[in-house]
Every structure is written in C-alpha cells, then in structure tokens.
Write a structure and sequence with these properties.
Strand content: under 5%
Largest sheet: none
Number of helices: 3
Number of strands: 0
Shape: elongated
C-alpha cells in the first residue's frame, strides 16, 4: 500500500453506532480507564472493530481501485 493510500485511509471517517446507555458507559470508561473492568474494555474494543473494520475494508478497496485506474491511465499515456 502506498503512503498516499495509507494517508487517505487514515483520514477516512467511520460511523459507529451505540445506544445512549453504551455511550454513557464508554464515556465513564474513558474518564476512569484504570477502574474499568477488563471485559467492558474488551467489549467496546470488539464492538468498534466489528463496526469499523468492514467500513475500512470497503474504503481501502475503493481507494486501491482508484489508484490502480490512475496507474493504468498513466501507463497507457
């Protein structure tokens, strides 16, 4: 993966969905991380990975397709 592609991917927003209760729990965990139960932390990490992962893969595939098309157009010119 090129540096430019990685930069674009790093700047790509993702959308996460949590209930109001989950957001409140997450904010409390972030406020006092040393007091948070490990299972709570693991649950949020898993939830974020499960939601963000497919979005990042979709963006990566799209960016790679654009990069490939640009490379091919430069090669044929």
């Amino acid at each position: 993966m090129s540096d430019e592609l990685q930069k674009r991917l790093d700047e790509t927003p993702v959308t996460l969905e949590f209930t109001v209760q989950e957001v409140n729990i997450l904010l409390n965990v972030l406020n006092m991380p040393t007091q948070a139960p490990t299972m709570t932390l693991a649950g949020f990490i898993t939830a974020i990975q499960n939601q963000a992962g497919p979005q990042v893969e979709k963006a990566k595939t799209a960016f790679e397709a654009v990069e490939k098309a640009q490379d091919e157009s430069q090669t044929t010119t």
